Amino acid sequence: MKKLVILLSFLILVLGSCKKNVSPATTAETVDQLARDYLYDAMNQYYFWYNLMPAVVKTDYKDPYTLLDAMMYKTLDRWSFVQTYEEYLAMSQGDFVGHGISLGLDPNNQVRIVQIYNNSPLYSLGVRRGWIVKQLNGTDLAPIFLANDATAYNNLIGASTAGITNTFLFQTPQGKDSTIVSTKAAFTLNTVLLADTLHLKSGITGHLVFDQFIQPSNDELLTAFTYFSQNNITDLIVDLRYNGGGDISVLTNMASYLAGTAKLNTPFLQLTFNDKNTSYNTTYNFNSVAFPLSITKLIIITTRETASASEDFINGLKPILDVHTLGDTTNGKPVGMIGIPYQTSYMFWPITFSLVNSAGQGGFYKGFAPDKYVPDDFTHDWNDRNEACFKEAIYYLEHGTISSKGLMIKRPTLKFSEKDNKNNNAYILKK
Questions:
Q1: How far, in Å, CA of 241 to CA of 415, rounded?
Q2: Disulfide: which of 206, 269, 319, 402 matches 233 by Cβ 3.0-4.6 Å?
């Protein structure tokens, strides 16, 4: 193995199949069998729990998807998966096809825009987080969400194909109905959804809403932290509520902005592999960035979707900064995975290592519980000071404590997205 590239990701998974040529059945069976056998060997070599895997006969399974499901140590592993190579390339580059939205059901049983990308078709038409979506193609959406009927929703919105048109009936924040026709398009995701400053009693505070750690994020983060540095922020609110992870080089860069020059080249995260692969054990240090900050407090907004690299961002900074979280308990993934390519047909993602911070802390399978439980309030936009999580973060900075004790959130947000997500820490293995 000559080159190792590290990723930590909450990956987009759209199940697909191999391209078929002259003899579809024969070609597909041959590729799938060879890929299955390759995965079997890889699991026995790299899987973190290789000695706890169920005993299987690989020829009993038709393809790598079914084989992986049979081999996983499901007592702890809820993340390993298989994707096509094309899906992997699209994920790593931030490629996306659709309207660029996620929808959720609010406490009043109204469907709203939970998240929208700046480069998406609907954003360019003025739609924002918090807008009520009353109908899609003439069909009321609330009953579909109340029934948790993902099939009905997916059939209604259609495939992730550029050129498909949908008609939305929105209710704007001003209470007016607005019918908007939107056509799905291909675009690159923006990962910095907001970068702004607040003038609080406690000082100038930065506010960053960050979606995922992928390579295009580096330029966006440089712009954001240049802005924060120029405005001399003393504290920072980082909203990671839907951030499922990404590239470890991006994660390390972002953490390095907060660690500042004092921690340059000191340990950030340590990766430990199984006893067959101890030569891959790696320590990642805080590195040099253009505009390192010197902040007093770091407030992070989290939900159950805050996973992988986002959790490692929290865990890796805890030994060196005053870190507080608000919202809901995070996903709970203290392990990661090698991404193993099979030719240009598949990418396999078995769990292969554990992660700890510089103090040796890890193993957070139950996630990080917040300092205060605060419901995800998508009835407001990100920078609305009445948005529940944002409001609580401001209160904490200005008073040095939470406003009151929050109750554990028992009702998760029901959300349908154009992205079908799996949360992963990933470590790309290239030969």
A1: 13
A2: 206
Give me the percent of the chain exceeding a pLDDT of 90. 77
pTM of the model: 0.87
Q: Which residue is it, tokens 């799938």?
A: 32
Write out pLDDT tens, residues 220-247: 999 999 999 999 999 999 999 999 888 8
Distances in Å between the Cα of 106 and the Cα atoms of 132, 380, 412, 415 are 9, 11, 11, 10
CA dist 101 and 280 (Å) reads 39
Say if residue 6's pLDDT is above 80.
Answer: no
Write the CATH number for 257.
3.90.226.10
Asked whether residue 221 falls in the same domain as residue 168, the answer is: no
pLDDT in tens, 9-33: 333 232 233 333 434 444 556 899 9
In terms of residue numbers, what domain contains 334? Answer: 192-339+348-402
- Residues 266 and 132 reside in one and the same domain: no
Residue 431 covered by a domain: no
Q: Which residue has the tokens 């404590």?
A: 401
